[in-house]
Amino acid sequence: MGLNMIGPKPDRILPFFEKIIHTIDPVIASILDKAIDGKEISVEEGVELFEAKGIEMSTLILAADELRRQKVGDIVTYVINRNINFTNICIKRCGFCAFSKDYRDEEGYFLTIKEIVDRAKEAWNMGATEVCIQAGLPPRMNGNLYIDICKAIKKELPEIHIHAFSPEEIVYGASRLGTSIDEYLKMLKEAGIGSLPGTSAEILDDEIRSIISPGRIKTRDWIRVIKTAHKIGIPTTSTIMYGHIESSLHKAKHLSIIRDIQKETHGITEFVPLSFVHSEAPMYKKGLVKGIREGATGAEVIKMHAVSRIMLNNINNIQVSWVKEGTKFAQFCLNAGANDLGGTLIDESISRAAGANYGQFLHPKDFRRLIRDLGRIPAQRSTTYDILKIFKDESSDDILDKFQFDKSNLTSISINKL
Ligand code: SF4
Fold first, then answer.
1. Fewer Cβ atoms within 10 Å of its own Cβ: the N or the C terminal residue of the chain?
2. Which numbered atom of ligand 1 lies nearest the CA of 200?
């Protein structure tokens, strides 16, 4: 069934819609028809969609929304979680990262394991089901640190889900301990890790990576960590960071790599487009990268979500990041293929350091308002997309809804130099 045949057939096509159908570029129309029929679209076809403008772009959004409806229905999910970015001290200098500091820097901080556990406990007591732990790569780090963090959290909070350590951190931890990726991931699983964030993907193209983040793990390393995690039973998310120097072809190829991994392992729970936040990023501020854009435009953001829904026909969940896009634009992306709003976060530090204007915390009731206003159904989910609670009406008993966000309510960051 193609795009022109969705739902009951009217006796005649209304003039307005007839005009639209006959106006749209036939190339875009046939790609969208193919996608709506459940067929895989190629990298070249993905590029065509990324380049769509005007009525073609509007039709692309409509097709992505229809695919979302067919795949996951009208429920829009969110997770109650807390980010714990336990240190900003890092040996790398990725060009987009305004979070990392040198170990001699006055602004460097390092939370102890006890402080990390205390934060996890605070989150759990406020109704969080997940802690998301990512940080810088401190010099001379004990390779057991990530394992010890997981063990310490699980000892106090056996039921909390630990979503932690990007492929970059996994490669670093394994090399500091002198073990293989496979062995390291098995040790983390044994210590209680629940899933890995598929961050540090940026654009999975080594030429682009060597410009925006020289020193970062290579594309093949990212893929190896993700596939190895899946093979030993650790699910992961997947991401893209776009809006800097990449082209439509880079984005389409990136999506195709993610789709191929999923075909092989089925271990990816969601895909999260993350638009580049330029204002504090060193590579933008210092003019280090020729031709760098000031982040993605609104059209790019919308198309990124829509094309992701269309190309990633084997991944159910497309998340829009309210931290990157703001709540109003994130709400709009829910009508362009996305079905998840991510997490409450509580105290996110990385995007804010890069200059994002949104973020640290969003009440679950605010998520629900955004979702209901679109005529969709809000639901709280687990990290791995089990539905925990569907909110059919406004009544709610979330502890977090009563929480007034104020930094003084939370354990403050202590500055421990290495
Ligand atoms: S993105 Fe991660 S690895 Fe790169 S500089 Fe920032 S904290 Fe370090």
1. N
2. 1
Cβ of 136 below 6 Å from ligand 1:
yes
- Cβ of 137 closer than 6 Å to ligand 1, yes or no, is yes
CA–centroid distance, 176 to ligand 1, in Å, is 17
Paired residues of 390 in beta bridges = 379
Q: How far is CA 62 from CA 3, 25, 35, 340, in A?
A: 9, 15, 12, 17
Element housing 81 (H / E): strand 81-84
For residues 266-280, give the mean pLDDT: 95
Q: Quote the pLDDT of residue 416.
A: 29
Q: Residue 383 — φ and ψ, nearest 5°?
A: -60, -35
pLDDT score of 305? 98
CA of 98 from ligand 1 middle (Å) equals: 8
pTM over 0.85: yes
**Contact by Cβ (8 Å): 232, 206:** no
Beta bridge partner(s), residue 240? 273
Q: In CATH, what number is assigned to the domain containing residue 387?
A: 3.20.20.70
Sequence-separated (6 or more) residues with CB below 8 Å from residue 299: 53, 57
Q: Select from 72, 94, 124 the last residue of a domain.
A: 72
Instruction: Answer yes or no: is 415 within a domain.
Output: no
59/173 same-domain check: no
CA distance 116 to 382: 21
**Token pair of 216 as six digits:** 């970062």
Residue position matching structure tokens 């009508």: 335
| Cα→Cα distances 292→178, 201, 307, Å | 37, 18, 22
Tell me if 330 is assigned to some domain: yes
Helices (H) and strands (E) in the chain, counts: 16, 10
Q: What is the pLDDT of residue 397?
A: 59
Say whether both 149 and 257 belong to one domain: yes
**Residue 224: partners with Cβ closer than 8 Å, 6 or more residues away:** 181
**CA 46 to centroid of ligand 1, rounded, Å:** 30
| Burial tier of 58 (Cβ tally within 10 Å: 0-12, 13-18, 19+) | middle
Residues with Cβ within 8 Å of 380's Cβ and at least 6 positions away in sequence, in order, are 77, 78, 79, 80, 364, 387, 388, 389, 391
